[in-house]
Specification:
The protein has seven helices and 18 strands. By secondary structure, it is an alpha+beta fold. It folds into two domains: 122 residues, Ribosomal Protein S5, domain 2 (2-Layer Sandwich); 168 residues, 2-Layer Sandwich (lpxc deacetylase, domain 1). β2 and β3 form a beta hairpin. The longest helix has 14 residues. The two termini are 25 Å apart.
């Protein structure tokens, strides 16, 4: 994609926050070039919070952004859709503190983007291209990124029965994201529900917006949308956290049992050292590839 984009027309949705349980409405609107994704708290006089690594607040069971004490929680699904579907600039008006969970996946947001349409600007899109390998490790978990000319993911997960070990690898394009990742829902285990509620979490969770596992399998009517739905959802989450880089990524991300905190650590590591990456346009990248093929 050579040029920056935004949505063609406003679209909106409403639902509840997964963790807060509060009712919330969002409205996605066009934004000028180089705006990025900006959340606008309409219940707080239009206070703005850019979707940036600089504003990451909490990263345990969801990724939250905070600016001057104002919070936006559970941003990862919406940001994953913006990032993967190629939306560079948008205002997200929101009238409460948490992005609605909708059906627990990215699919409703993909449909919103399709409904809104995509407008292309004349400003050349600038990519963040990884120049050398980077790795973050902690307690047997690891996330790393290697140089690549496209955005590629390898995601390995390992959960208790009946999920077990799962893995996937794909080049992230709008088409592949929409068909292979967007449908995957958030998930959890029945025996963790009381503990999570005691922590003030999942107050808005139900079988309508999350997969709930027992040792025998999912409680949800209709079961899973794919045998490896959990791994696909973790890949969706990972993309949403990488979106906080603020530019489309060129690199091969390899996540082994990583979660939100480790995703955020990788993003912070990248942005703390400008020698790890370069900012490049599509045309510059294409010219390099052509020269390499000729030589």
């Amino acid at each position: 994609m050579r040029f920056e984009t935004t949505v063609q027309r406003p679209v909106e949705a409403e639902g509840v926050g997964l963790h807060s349980g509060v009712p919330v409405r969002i409205r996605i609107l066009p934004a000028p070039v180089s705006t990025g994704i900006v959340f606008v708290r309409t219940d707080l006089e239009g206070f703005q919070i850019p979707a940036s690594w600089r504003h990451v607040a909490r990263v345990s069971y969801a990724t939250s952004l905070m600016r001057q004490g104002v919070l936006i929680s559970t941003t990862e699904h919406l940001l994953s859709v913006f990032y993967s579907m190629g939306i560079d600039n948008a205002y997200v008006e929101i009238d409460n503190l948490e992005v609605p969970i909708l059906d627990g996946s990215g699919l409703p947001f993909v449909k919103l983007i399709e409904q809104a349409g995509i407008r292309h600007y004349r400003r050349k899109r600038r990519y963040l291209r990884i120049r050398r390998p980077i790795s973050v490790e902690d307690k047997g978990k690891c996330i790393s990124i290697l140089p690549d000319e496209v955005f590629r993911l390898t995601c390995d997960t390992d959960y208790p029965a009946p999920v077990g070990r799962q893995s996937l690898e794909l080049e992230v394009t709008p088409e592949r994201f929409a068909s292979e990742l967007a449908f995957a829902r958030t998930f959890g285990w029945q025996n963790d529900l009381d503990q999570m509620r005691n922590m003030g979490l999942i107050r808005g969770a139900s079988l309508e917006n999350a997969v709930c596992f027992t040792q025998e399998g999912p409680l949800n009517e209709g079961g899973l949308r794919a045998a490896d739905e959990c791994c696909r959802h973790k890949a969706l989450d990972l993309i949403g956290d990488l979106a906080l880089l603020g530019r489309p990524l060129l690199g091969h991300v390899i996540a082994e049992r990583a979660g939100h905190a480790m995703h955020a650590a990788l993003v912070a590591r990248i942005m703390s050292d400008p020698s790890l990456y370069e900012i490049i346009t599509f045309d510059q990248l294409a010219s390099r590839v052509t020269q390499a093929l000729v030589s």
